[in-house]
Request: fold
Amino acid sequence: MDNRNPRDTFFKKKILNSKFIVYTIITFLLSITTFALSKITFILVPFAIFAQTIFLPVLLAGVCFYLFNPLINYLEKKGNKRVLSVLLLYLVIIGVLAIVILSVIPPLKDQVQSLVHNIPKISHDIQDMVQDASQNKYIKQGAQSTNTDIDKVFKSFSGHLNEYISGFSQGVLTFIGTLTEVILAFAVLPFILFYLLKDGKDLPKYIVRLLPNQTRPEAKEIFGDMNHALSSYIRGQIFVATCIGVLFFIGYLIIGIDYALLLAIIAMLTNVVPYLGPIIAILPAIIIAFVMSPFMVLKLAVVWIIVQLLEGKLISPQIMGKSLNIHPITVIFVILTAGNLFGIVGIILAVPGYAILKVIVTHLYQFIRLRSSMYTDTKKVKKEEPTPFNIKPREEK
Reply:
């Protein structure tokens, strides 16, 4: 007797088994949602302001949660109460921050002030060096052989250099202008992080309870995969960036380049962006080395190559591994697209956002595949049904 619901059978045969209908429904729903949101933007403005206000504190708290949560879980397994473990962690963090503030902040502040003060001089020195190089007879002969206007190239280079220096100066001033917002975010961070470390591990359970019973196992698996992807990326990227910053600082001290601490911190922060970060970090170092001497540029190149080899062959494979399983070309395209859409925030969140989206799309694909016959092989021979000619005789007891 067939106990299947006729409506359920019709839905599976006519809807889930039709690629055209499934893709049409998905496209239609996305289009309707986009159109509806575009018509009610005035309603969404308060929500957008609220999200923008809490975005930075929540983002920092989430990063710290994935960084410190394994330690809290370990202490809890050893028999310590979770609240006491969090308070102990806070005491350790306060001690580390005190050491960093006393030892790192003063020289970093002096180097930033010195660099901002010397930016016009650095720009003038570079232009003089390029002007002197343009008068070299060998360069003139090479330009004449290639029919190149050396004066036009020099003017173009000077214009681009002034734009870059101006943009760098404006970036420094913009960072100083937004320092108040960053300070407020760090002031709220300990309170958000405390409750995340205390109750954050139970948050997926509370969300799953709101879902229908049939979807709870799938939802638990999705949350588990998302948590694994985010934790692997955040912890790995922070450790890799820290190692890169330390290696660059040691290398800059060895070669004797100016602003070694500042350049190393820039390299550490920009290394959060895969593939593009090291290229961005090396540009200010090249300018400063070029002003000091051409030989300093050569020494900087040696340091940069050694650090990149260590990062690519030793550090990243050991720490990051292949946890996200994302092709490098995909990572570059995702970063470029997110940067054009959302700016610097999009560049930073591109890879983890893509990892979360990949988990959701993968599970959605599996959901459709298990409940639809669109992906079954029609060439397979159907199971032989019993007929009067192939029914096996019943065994006698």
